[in-house]
């Protein structure tokens, strides 16, 4: 019956998971069309906006309608509830504005004063934002307080994953925002609807080319945003896809466990019924008939599980729809999916059939004579493993070792599964450790210089004298000039980091070669180097400030900024392209980082007219990281739970079948005076080596391949040579925890040995 | 002067099957004496095995008391009973029940090492015992499935003796063996008993019963007859073997209630009448 339960669970999960998978894409399209939402979005700072840009989109034949709207767009805002805050680009729009593309669809509303009210994407509800909660926005040292007045559904900027969150405020509040931050945040949003949404990325590309607007425009490329249809779909449905993937993965794990159980059962049945089979064989039954009855038996059990599994998935649908809706911020409507029903049930049944068939093959190889003797030849062991009269270890351990020898194949399977789940746990724990606990290694890979304070000089101010003054302030141990400037290389936009002295940087580093020293040298990211097909020792063409020149690659670095499209060059190098170029941003390092806020306040007072922006850089980085770290914590929690479940399930099933199989032996042991506890320990111990081996292999493997694997996974965000810290303690603790859990579960499962009685053995 | 090793008082065992109650042992008052080779007989289903396993702490009685060397064991928990068996009892089963994933020697040691931790000493003793029951050294390393029934049962007997139990319980130890193997096993048991080992054996078989020094006959859950036969001797055994066929039909007239225990030594020489007395007793019991 427990087997039928396993099959039921796996069909259920498989069905739900697959059902979501195939529906994700049509779901998003449906939502977009129903709400008349944009297929492509461009957000530009108001000062960069020109009517020709709108005209360009209007005249394009692929476009059906365009709308331009004034919005507040803050690339580096942070929003917070209570003491929690997260760094996320924020788009504030006027609720009272009429619009044709993506009109506001409110789901829930509470009475809140108009000047305080903010409407948030419904996905935030899932993150704990309740109606009436305070929501704080802080942007460039300005703070605004709002109250959550309602939720809305949106296909763009509706989840944290998109990096930008959309909010609506009422007219009075919008006026206030405009008054206070219009010059930095005032932006124009162009929304486009198209004949074929899939062409939106091409449209945006040609828009950039034709209008000359680039994402890396100005030094503030954080204040532009290009969103095509694919990316919109991806970020909105990402959590759904991950959820579906987890379900499918989990269902496969359960299927595998079920198949292992089936194999055990078949083999046990053959052993138990050996004599019966011999009798049947002697009577003239063919081995095929005997086999067929066995296979039929397991197929019936599986069908009993698979059928209700599919049905149950429909019972679970409302709850799942709710969850998916809150994950994507869009209402998920589930429906009848007969094909998926059939596919998931048939896949599971076919696997059961295959395994039963394979496991019952030995019946064919069993002549009746041998079967009648109870399959004597199956016990013809060569060697008496772990003899009791010599060798090390106590009696219990030696007896356990005998069992290991007898179940070698089973032990190998257990070890492999343990290795798999331990690997997954250790791998996610390593990521979690680096993202949430000790961020040093991650900051290095970020490719941002992490100083305590970053100051941008006011336009028109004499930056050189300002910076000399600041660098000489008390408490400042080091100052670095570092700025980012747009560039163009081999047809690609890139961000060029310009500094006087790269060797004094704390976090910017090369993983190969050296930093640029001379005016003809450049360092590329690994990703950029792959893009242009050039590496250390070769020269590349760089276009910046209206000129172009060729530079020698002296090293490779990595960064998560700008999708990894970054180059580093010296100020003198930049001067060869743009003689009037001036670094307008300064990094300050303090001897006492805890005083950073006080220092910022002092600087603001003393140099107010010369400073455009002053930031607590670590705080900013922490805020940006916090969005990742919370999803990584979630991922780790899920992986750890799945690991525990798998460990518990596997150990339970294996011990359970071991007890059934060894019932006779256990009876004999009890008869000659072994206590239940001794037999429990013996049984648990017999599985322990496989568990320990699996955990150790999985742990070592994870520690060893984490960085290469992460380089592969993170390549797209710009990391080509990952160097995460691998905390040995964490790895060891996790392995120990897996082993400990497995041992405890095996002991607990072994408690059913209590029910085995010596007496039953004798009277049966 | 003869010490009682096990004493039962109002021993009852009831099985319930589908709401119906079956009283297998009824208010049984019984003594098992030290040094005796007690044989339990009775028709199939009369409760012989049930009694044996109640006496040996393998199973708990429904009601009543069992004192083993003065200690009340009927109220012990299952684990306490396991420890009790380990310390005081040895078992020989009809189906032998060796552990088939280990060698003969290890089968013996799995029992022997439970009590004594000294590997070497226990292994030495095991080897000595194996030799004594006639198992050659080549057989020690074999697995149970590679042994003949008789060989396996000898190993089973050694396992029962390895920890020097106060008493050995045997439930039809020769039930699955051919007559030659049976005789060998019976000889071993007799010899062990002659060395002073207390033993209780359940049997169906006249030849086996003849080895006993005291016969208990069970019917309907009560002991309806007891016969003191005295110690068996090898010489008399051969004679009995011949006479067995002739005397099989000769009826006896021993009254169940009058058969009482006689002093051990006094009947020992009275071998010529062992078979006759047993036959008479069994006829009386309606065997
Ligand atoms: N565990 C049990 N559950 C229910 N009934 C039982 C159980 N054990 C024994 N019995 C019943 O008790 C009665 C006596 O059984 P027992 O095994 O003691 O007989 P026996 O004298 O040993 O017979 P045999 O000579 O056939 O071995 C039988 O009727 C049997 O069905
Ligand atoms: Mg019996």
Automatic annotation (TrEMBL), chain B:
UniProt-listed CDD domains: ABC_MJ0796_LolCDE_FtsE
Gene3D superfamilies: P-loop containing nucleotide triphosphate hydrolases
Record keywords, A-Z: ATP-binding, Nucleotide-binding, Transport
Signal peptide: none
GO molecular-function term, one example from the UniProt record: ATP hydrolysis activity
PROSITE patterns recorded: ABC_TRANSPORTER_1, ABC_TRANSPORTER_2
Location of region: Disordered: 246-270
Coiled coil: none
Domain ABC transporter: 6-245
Entries under InterPro entries matching the protein: AAA+_ATPase, ABC_transporter-like_ATP-bd, ABC_transporter-like_CS, MacB-like_ATP-bd, P-loop_NTPase
Highest taxon, organism lineage: Bacteria
Family indicated by similarity: Belongs to the ABC transporter superfamily.
Protein name: ABC transporter ATP-binding protein
